[in-house]
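Case study 2.
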Amino acid sequence: MIKADRFLAHKEQDFEGWIQARRSGVTATQVANASTKAGFEKAASDFLLEWSEPDNPYMRFGRDWEGLMADYVEAEYNVAPNEWLIRGENERHLATPDGLSRDHKTIGEYKTTGKDWGTVEKLPLRYKRQIQWQLHVTGAERCVVAWLLREEIDGEFIPAWFEPATGIVRRDEEMIEELIATADRLWEFVGGK
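Prediction:
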Protein backbone atom coordinates (compact mmCIF):
# COMPACT_ATOMS: atom_id res chain seq x y z
CA MET A 1 0.00 0.00 0.00
CA ILE A 2 1.11 3.53 -0.74
CA LYS A 3 1.44 5.53 2.47
CA ALA A 4 -0.79 8.59 2.81
CA ASP A 5 2.11 11.05 2.90
CA ARG A 6 3.10 9.99 -0.63
CA PHE A 7 -0.14 11.46 -2.07
CA LEU A 8 1.08 15.00 -2.73
CA ALA A 9 -1.56 17.00 -4.60
CA HIS A 10 -4.94 16.39 -6.26
CA LYS A 11 -5.14 17.68 -9.82
CA GLU A 12 -8.87 18.46 -9.86
CA GLN A 13 -9.14 19.89 -6.34
CA ASP A 14 -5.93 21.98 -6.41
CA PHE A 15 -4.60 22.32 -9.95
CA GLU A 16 -2.03 25.00 -9.05
CA GLY A 17 -0.79 22.93 -6.10
CA TRP A 18 -0.57 19.89 -8.39
CA ILE A 19 1.47 21.87 -10.95
CA GLN A 20 3.78 23.15 -8.21
CA ALA A 21 4.24 19.69 -6.69
CA ARG A 22 5.19 18.28 -10.12
CA ARG A 23 8.16 20.64 -10.16
CA SER A 24 9.63 18.89 -7.12
CA GLY A 25 10.75 15.88 -9.15
CA VAL A 26 10.53 13.95 -12.42
CA THR A 27 7.17 12.77 -13.77
CA ALA A 28 6.26 9.92 -16.11
CA THR A 29 5.88 12.25 -19.09
CA GLN A 30 9.23 13.91 -18.42
CA VAL A 31 11.19 10.68 -18.03
CA ALA A 32 9.55 9.16 -21.12
CA ASN A 33 10.44 12.27 -23.14
CA ALA A 34 14.00 12.37 -21.74
CA SER A 35 14.76 8.80 -22.79
CA THR A 36 16.29 9.87 -26.12
CA LYS A 37 19.12 12.35 -26.73
CA ALA A 38 16.91 14.95 -28.42
CA GLY A 39 14.13 14.26 -25.96
CA PHE A 40 16.46 14.75 -23.00
CA GLU A 41 17.46 18.21 -24.18
CA LYS A 42 13.82 19.20 -24.76
CA ALA A 43 12.68 17.74 -21.43
CA ALA A 44 15.42 19.68 -19.62
CA SER A 45 14.50 22.89 -21.47
CA ASP A 46 10.77 22.38 -20.82
CA PHE A 47 11.38 21.72 -17.14
CA LEU A 48 12.82 25.19 -16.69
CA LEU A 49 9.76 26.82 -18.30
CA GLU A 50 6.40 27.43 -16.70
CA TRP A 51 4.34 24.29 -17.33
CA SER A 52 0.86 24.55 -18.80
CA GLU A 53 -1.77 22.09 -19.98
CA PRO A 54 -1.70 21.85 -23.78
CA ASP A 55 -4.94 22.62 -25.55
CA ASN A 56 -5.64 21.42 -29.06
CA PRO A 57 -8.41 19.28 -30.61
CA TYR A 58 -6.52 16.05 -29.87
CA MET A 59 -6.02 16.94 -26.21
CA ARG A 60 -9.63 18.13 -25.87
CA PHE A 61 -10.92 14.85 -27.30
CA GLY A 62 -8.73 12.95 -24.84
CA ARG A 63 -9.95 15.00 -21.88
CA ASP A 64 -13.57 14.70 -23.01
CA TRP A 65 -13.44 10.91 -23.23
CA GLU A 66 -11.03 10.01 -20.41
CA GLY A 67 -13.93 9.85 -17.95
CA LEU A 68 -15.71 7.24 -20.07
CA MET A 69 -12.55 5.13 -20.16
CA ALA A 70 -12.05 5.56 -16.40
CA ASP A 71 -15.63 4.43 -15.73
CA TYR A 72 -15.18 1.43 -18.02
CA VAL A 73 -11.93 0.35 -16.36
CA GLU A 74 -13.42 0.80 -12.90
CA ALA A 75 -16.40 -1.40 -13.82
CA GLU A 76 -14.33 -4.08 -15.57
CA TYR A 77 -11.14 -4.12 -13.48
CA ASN A 78 -12.04 -2.42 -10.17
CA VAL A 79 -9.46 0.34 -10.75
CA ALA A 80 -10.81 3.70 -9.53
CA PRO A 81 -10.07 7.01 -11.28
CA ASN A 82 -7.08 8.86 -9.82
CA GLU A 83 -6.11 12.55 -9.83
CA TRP A 84 -3.41 12.36 -7.13
CA LEU A 85 0.23 13.12 -7.81
CA ILE A 86 2.10 10.33 -6.01
CA ARG A 87 5.75 10.29 -5.02
CA GLY A 88 7.80 7.14 -5.06
CA GLU A 89 10.11 5.79 -2.40
CA ASN A 90 12.55 8.26 -3.95
CA GLU A 91 10.86 11.62 -3.27
CA ARG A 92 11.98 12.97 -6.68
CA HIS A 93 10.15 10.22 -8.59
CA LEU A 94 6.57 11.37 -9.28
CA ALA A 95 3.53 10.11 -11.20
CA THR A 96 -0.19 10.70 -11.59
CA PRO A 97 -1.59 7.41 -12.94
CA ASP A 98 -5.09 7.73 -14.42
CA GLY A 99 -6.37 4.92 -12.20
CA LEU A 100 -5.44 3.19 -8.94
CA SER A 101 -6.93 0.07 -7.37
CA ARG A 102 -7.86 0.09 -3.70
CA ASP A 103 -5.05 -2.34 -2.87
CA HIS A 104 -2.62 -0.21 -4.96
CA LYS A 105 -1.45 -3.28 -6.91
CA THR A 106 -2.98 -2.10 -10.20
CA ILE A 107 -2.86 1.28 -11.92
CA GLY A 108 -4.69 2.52 -15.00
CA GLU A 109 -3.51 4.54 -17.99
CA TYR A 110 -6.00 5.86 -20.57
CA LYS A 111 -5.23 7.13 -24.06
CA THR A 112 -7.12 8.28 -27.12
CA THR A 113 -5.52 7.57 -30.45
CA GLY A 114 -5.89 7.93 -34.21
CA LYS A 115 -4.43 4.43 -34.69
CA ASP A 116 -5.67 1.15 -33.28
CA TRP A 117 -2.73 -0.51 -31.57
CA GLY A 118 -4.52 -3.85 -31.43
CA THR A 119 -2.61 -5.07 -28.36
CA VAL A 120 -0.63 -3.49 -25.55
CA GLU A 121 2.51 -4.97 -27.08
CA LYS A 122 2.10 -2.44 -29.90
CA LEU A 123 1.79 0.64 -27.69
CA PRO A 124 4.17 3.45 -28.69
CA LEU A 125 7.46 3.20 -26.77
CA ARG A 126 6.93 6.55 -25.01
CA TYR A 127 3.66 5.24 -23.54
CA LYS A 128 5.38 2.03 -22.42
CA ARG A 129 7.98 4.17 -20.67
CA GLN A 130 5.31 6.30 -18.98
CA ILE A 131 3.54 3.19 -17.74
CA GLN A 132 6.72 1.58 -16.42
CA TRP A 133 7.58 4.79 -14.58
CA GLN A 134 4.13 4.87 -13.00
CA LEU A 135 4.52 1.23 -11.96
CA HIS A 136 7.90 2.12 -10.42
CA VAL A 137 6.58 5.14 -8.52
CA THR A 138 3.47 3.41 -7.17
CA GLY A 139 5.03 -0.02 -6.64
CA ALA A 140 2.08 -1.52 -8.53
CA GLU A 141 2.40 -4.89 -10.25
CA ARG A 142 0.37 -4.19 -13.37
CA CYS A 143 -1.32 -1.49 -15.40
CA VAL A 144 -4.67 -1.68 -17.16
CA VAL A 145 -4.24 0.29 -20.37
CA ALA A 146 -7.39 1.51 -22.09
CA TRP A 147 -7.39 3.22 -25.46
CA LEU A 148 -10.18 4.69 -27.53
CA LEU A 149 -9.87 5.15 -31.27
CA ARG A 150 -11.01 8.51 -32.63
CA GLU A 151 -12.12 9.33 -36.13
CA GLU A 152 -12.78 12.64 -37.81
CA ILE A 153 -16.12 13.41 -39.43
CA ASP A 154 -16.85 16.85 -40.86
CA GLY A 155 -13.88 18.31 -38.99
CA GLU A 156 -14.97 16.92 -35.61
CA PHE A 157 -13.41 14.08 -33.62
CA ILE A 158 -15.78 11.34 -32.48
CA PRO A 159 -15.18 7.92 -30.89
CA ALA A 160 -14.83 5.15 -33.47
CA TRP A 161 -15.82 2.50 -30.92
CA PHE A 162 -18.60 2.06 -28.34
CA GLU A 163 -16.09 1.17 -25.62
CA PRO A 164 -12.30 1.32 -25.23
CA ALA A 165 -9.94 -1.53 -25.95
CA THR A 166 -7.93 -2.72 -22.96
CA GLY A 167 -4.88 -4.76 -22.10
CA ILE A 168 -2.56 -5.46 -19.19
CA VAL A 169 1.06 -4.28 -18.96
CA ARG A 170 3.26 -5.89 -16.31
CA ARG A 171 6.38 -4.45 -14.70
CA ASP A 172 9.56 -4.50 -16.76
CA GLU A 173 12.37 -4.15 -14.22
CA GLU A 174 15.03 -3.65 -16.90
CA MET A 175 13.15 -0.71 -18.43
CA ILE A 176 12.44 0.68 -14.96
CA GLU A 177 16.17 0.67 -14.13
CA GLU A 178 16.90 2.57 -17.36
CA LEU A 179 14.17 5.11 -16.55
CA ILE A 180 15.51 5.62 -13.01
CA ALA A 181 18.95 6.41 -14.43
CA THR A 182 17.40 8.82 -16.96
CA ALA A 183 15.26 10.54 -14.31
CA ASP A 184 18.17 10.95 -11.91
CA ARG A 185 20.35 12.35 -14.71
CA LEU A 186 17.57 14.77 -15.75
CA TRP A 187 17.04 15.95 -12.17
CA GLU A 188 20.77 16.52 -11.72
CA PHE A 189 20.95 18.36 -15.06
CA VAL A 190 18.17 20.81 -14.20
CA GLY A 191 19.87 21.47 -10.89
CA GLY A 192 17.11 20.11 -8.72
CA LYS A 193 15.09 23.28 -9.28
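The helical segments are 15-22, 28-33, 37-47, 57-77, 125-138, 173-189.
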